[in-house]
Specification:
about 625 residues, 19 helices, alpha/beta, six-stranded parallel β-sheet, disordered N terminus, six-stranded mixed β-sheet
Amino acid sequence: MVLSRNGGRLAMVVVTAGLTLVTAAVTACSGDGCSAPSAPSTTPRSQSEPARDGWVEETLRSMTLEEKVGQLFVTYVYGETADTRREEDVAANQEWLGVDNGREAVERYDLGGVIYFGWSDNLDNPEQVVGLSNGLQRAAVDQPAGVPLLVTTDQEHGAITRLGAPATLFPGSMALGASGSAADAREAASISAEELRAVGITMNHAPDADVNVNAANPVIGIRSFGGDPQAVAELTAAQVEGHEAGGEAGVVASPKHFPGHGDTDEDSHDELPAVDHSLEEWREIDAPPFRAAVEAGAGAIMTGHLQFPALDPSGDPATLSEPIVTGLLREELGYDGVVITDSLLMEGVRQAYPDAEVPVRALQAGVDLLLMPPDLDLAYHAVLDAVASGELTEERIDESVRRILTLKREQGIVAAPFADPDRVPEVVGNADHERAAQEITDGTTTLVRNDDAVLPLSAGGQNVLVAGSGPSRSATEALSARIGERDVTVTSQHAGADPDPAAIDAAVAAAADADTIVVTTNDAAARPGQAALVDALIATGKPVVTIATGLPYDIAHYPRAGTHLATYSTVPVALEAATRVLFGETDPGGSLPVMVPVADDPDTPLFPLGHGLTYP
């Protein structure tokens, strides 16, 4: 998921899945520092078993309509604690939800879940996060229904990372696609899930199951595992299994964005994209990862806000489409788990209908969880009014609430709603996890071109200029520091996100004393100054190594580059992996998980999917 801030509000999101069956009662606890109860017994979730058990049915029968409708909503709240009194957070919560803090929001609406962001002051550090999670869960289980929350976030890794260091950070989906290892994808998800659960987060809006077959896709790109449907399917299933296989240590995974957001050139945050695949193309290209997720037992699947005329000629976004949500996801793919919307703040779902109609239409389409409606009070009462008028039946509400309660039960949230603060230091970012992250990432760096055998570099005595372009000065400095550890003299020159002539001239001047130049780029298609920087440095006649630190399509915009790596990320383990390849400490193990087209001809390959060189 992605989002943007707009006038004190925001835009965008995604969801997750369920898995382990438990039996136990909620353990008492008080305050934000609650300790976890003893571990519940768990058994794996089966997608085919009936979504019924005694606790679910008894709880459902005891709930009022208002409590049941509250379970359908997931939203964000401001604050580092559940009962925050910080002036800025109280003001933001009043504007957003008409309450002072998260505790009051849970009490007013009997929320089904919450979602964490950094900009809403939820994710300062692991110890703070576990306190917030426990405080919100305390508010939920103290309600008459006693149903704990789904505590969610978007920890895709790479471009979309919510919980930062000291949590273990991976380079993201496309890097894992470059390695092609399902075992590595599963392990990365398992580590991430264990750390999320340790801070009280029980649902991750990941992985991205879109097949990225459009190099101009503005919103998916490196969030996808790649452009091969079967490879994406294998890695999606592996990450679902990794997220959910840990019992109390696992979280719900939520593959997204059904029916597939990989072939759009518009961003559904801002408009309603259309995908022109035929039904057969959908079955061949877009559906395999979601089918694999269903077969892997995904507890939740997130819908995308996009038109798919061949699947529903009405023009409704998929989130509001009964033919897509019920006809394809539930009936054709056989999915009976929780379906969650992408953020209802996004323009892609708000263009055709008023905000009060959207949640009702989503439920009519077959959705269960409604993520971040732009006006929660309006949406909540719109659903109640729809039941009162007969537009929705209470039986239809029960159907979704039953799925939600079952998911919470099976994921172990009912038995163990509270996280143990004492476990945080030993789990989050521990040495074993960091070591595994580096080992996994070492297999992802892709050597795309090495025409003059510039690589590997000699580690002794030479002068290296690192000329960074892209939005992150810190990434340039971090790469420079790692190269400097190899007994070379390094000059670091950050030229900016989209280098202007003055920045380019400064980099060329800095190259005068260099034996080798390393240039980083990030989204060169949108920032033409990056290609101009590369071309100017190539013109110096010095050996130049270019590194695409985000989208692997960058080299199409500076095709004269003779030595080129793709890292897909600027997280520390990705920069270390690239440095190891630069100096021949490891062989480049990745291959392109997408086709890289010629810049002005998207149908002509510059480098085919699967391309990747190794050292002799």
